[in-house]
Amino acid sequence: KKEDLAYSLLHNAFAMVAEVSERALAHTEKKELLITGGVAASKALREMLQKMCDERKCKLFVPPFAACLDNGLLPAWLGIVEYKAGNRMKVRETAVDQRQRSDSINVNWL
After folding, report:
1. Distance in angstroms (rounded) separating the CA atoms of residues 98 and 68
2. Confidence of residue 85 (pLDDT cuts 50, 70, 90)
3. What's the gap between Cα 72 and its chain centre?
4. pLDDT > 70: what percent of the chain?
5. What pLDDT is stored for residue 24 in this prediction?
6. Are 69 and 38 in contact (CB under 8 A)?
7. Average of pLDDT values for 10-39?
8. What are the helix (H) ranges across the chain?
9. Which strand (E) or helix (H) includes residue 60?
């Protein structure tokens, strides 16, 4: 059935997110995990990540459901934070790079 296939794909993707999150926690030796955005609204993902965090004795942070929606707020807020940190970019210099690794981004606003 199509719904069974969709369910299996969804849970497989969530299992991959949980595995990558667990590896990141192990690699960084952190004890806290934060999920945000639209995916954080998923009860199934929250449960998987909570189980993984319980096993690793880590704390999972999830915003209230109403804040876990895909919208323009997150990129707009990041723009404000970057601007306040003195980071500037011309529109013609901007581009989406889906292969860009988050560890290659210079973060000077923490």
Report:
1. 22
2. very high
3. 15
4. 98
5. 94
6. yes
7. 93
8. 2-28, 43-56, 73-84
9. strand 59-61
For residues 25 and 32, what is the distance between their CA atoms, to the nearest angstrom?
Answer: 8
Residue 58 · residue 25 · CB < 8 Å: yes
φ and ψ at residue 34, rounded to 5 degrees? -120, 130
Q: How many Å apart are CA 10 and CA 26, to the nearest integer?
A: 24
Using an 8 Å Cβ cutoff, are 96 and 75 in contact?
no
Q: 32 is written with which tokens?
A: 């806290």
> What tokens does 19 get?
């595995």
Asked whether the predicted pLDDT for residue 3 surpasses 90, the reply is no
Residue found under tokens 């997150």? 74
Containing 96, the helix (H) or strand (E) segment is: none
Calpha distance 104→101 (Å, rounded): 5
Strand partners, 34: 61
Give the model confidence (pLDDT) of 39-82 as tens digits.
888 999 999 999 999 999 999 999 888 778 766 777 788 888 88
